[in-house]
């Protein structure tokens, strides 16, 4: 059984700035982790942080789809599972952008809740990257 997570965030920003926050490795490092990400289909990348007792601190992925500045999708491999993360950006007008996160491939509800918690915390940093 595959479980999924959907989150929506609205920001006062441009599509270009939101896209850069999702695809520029320096900006990603400020709100997620250090990485070698490139928005190129087929590119294999890693996010890295300090390991702890629960995991080795590495998330491995491969870019699946790049539709700048509207949609980005990649695999997200962590703790023996591989998920698919898809970002969809929508211009809401009046200088507002909706950012939708859709993550699939969870094997249990605890993983979904852990991801919800993690992304919600990371998104505090995402907003700071937009105004920097």
What's the topology here?
Layout: E1 3-12, H1 15-23, H2 25-31, E2 34-35, E3 44-48, E4 58-67, E5 71-78, E6 81-93, E7 96-106, H3 109-131
Antiparallel strand pairs: 1-7, 2-3, 3-4, 4-5, 5-6, 6-7
Helix pairs in contact: 2-3
Question: What do these coordinates show?
Answer:
- The protein has 132 residues and is an alpha+beta fold.
- The chain has one domain: Alpha-D-Glucose-1,6-Bisphosphate, Chain A, domain 4.
- Helix content is 30%, strand content 45%.
- It has three helices and seven strands.
- The protein has helices spanning 15-23, 25-31, 109-131, and strands at residues 3-12, 34-35, 44-48, 58-67, 71-78, 81-93, 96-106.
- A seven-stranded antiparallel beta sheet has the order 1-7-6-5-4-3-2.
- A hairpin with an 8-residue loop joins strand 2 (34-35) and strand 3 (44-48).
- Helix 2 (25-31) crosses helix 3 (109-131).
- The model has no long low-confidence stretch (mean pLDDT 94).
